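**User:** Here is a favour to ask of a fellow structure person. Please take any protein you like and set down a full record of it. No explanation is needed for now; the record alone will do.

**Assistant:**
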Amino acid sequence: MIERYSSDEMSSIWSEDNKVAKWLDVERAVIEILEKEEITPKGLSKQLKEVSITHNEVLEREAVTNHDLAAFVDVLQSKIEKDSNWIHYGLTSSDVVDTANALLIKESLNIVVEKIAELVNSLKNKAISESETLIIGRTHGVYAEPTTLGNIFGNWCLEVSRGLDRLNSSLEIISYGKISGAVGNHSLISEDIENKILEQLSLKPEPLASQIVSRDRYADLFSSFSIIAGTYERIATNIRHYQRSEVGEMYEAFKQGQKGSSAMPHKKNPIGSERICGLARVVRGNTQASYETMALWHERDISNSSVERIILPDTFKLIDFMTRDLISIINDLVINHENIESNLNSAKTKLGSQKLLSLIVSKGNSRDEGYKFVQNITQNNFSIDAIIESTLSEFDDISKDEIENCFNLTTNIDSKIIEKKLKEL
């Protein structure tokens, strides 16, 4: 992933040196338990605690082995003075790699979950503070009926919250490792010892494993990523619409010294929201790649390996970046209440069409005839006075007050209900 979309925190987790450090954590846990079980000589676990390995050391050896994990084992053995022959005892490469992957994923997910919770809180605060702000509701991008800005923010908030629930579920599903050997048959390390090793690493054992942790677990995680990215894209897309010149109801903050265009000085563009929309497409592409890695030959092949070396670090960095970006956009969002009110008033004769139709129908008139009548007067931009006059002329059982009430800019959304539903999060 390019540095532009990577936080220091997530880049550190997915650095090559940290990956090697996690491999070492797995090897240490294995030897520690094997030593307690009196399978390996005493003192080996102490030697391992004092060892460190860099990615460059592994790379140098990999030039010979053409196998990064085998190179890592060679380097590790070379740093152990006594009983180094017991290093990697009973293990296959995937025991170390997949178990270490689970550790990296858990560490990364804890950060992502924390940031998404922060986003939920930001949206909740906006929803509560704007719970009584009337705004035009739009369907198909066209005027529909009044709603509240609090309801819009609340809707976004609840969707992000559901995405957070999915990721927490995925965290449970992905928190599995394996220490069961070449084809998962426990030929050297028993199931009981595997349980003890993985418990020490705060992981669960892959049941009835092949040579790897099953890749449906990874696919589940990426599915959750795609859904949360889709939610972010939905929010960002709507902010872009609200910022359009002819709407002008909400804007991304524009900093001192910022330039919206190299050619047009007047421009204030929703670049953060556009960036989120673009990156969501990359996340979905990575998710498709994760699905493709599920179908491996027999107990395994390594067609998944090259894919995961890219999509695991990249997708975590993207989701982390997009979440931080959206938090900033929401927290600094400029809400133009004057434009919101102006747009409401200019659309007033459209926003009461359903109420007027329902009033006509409630008096016993034909729904189809009523629909055609209301469609004609609202689509042809009649003024309120003209609408009242035409309706009174057409339907003698309807009063002026009843017609005017149809076009009062109100909604039945209770601000207290919004607050109550969001406080349950």
Q: What stands out?
A: The beta strands are 134-139, 142-148, 176-177, 204-205, 250-251, 334-335. The chain has a mean pLDDT of 95. Residues 93-129 form the longest helix (37 residues). The first strand starts at residue 134 and ends at 139.
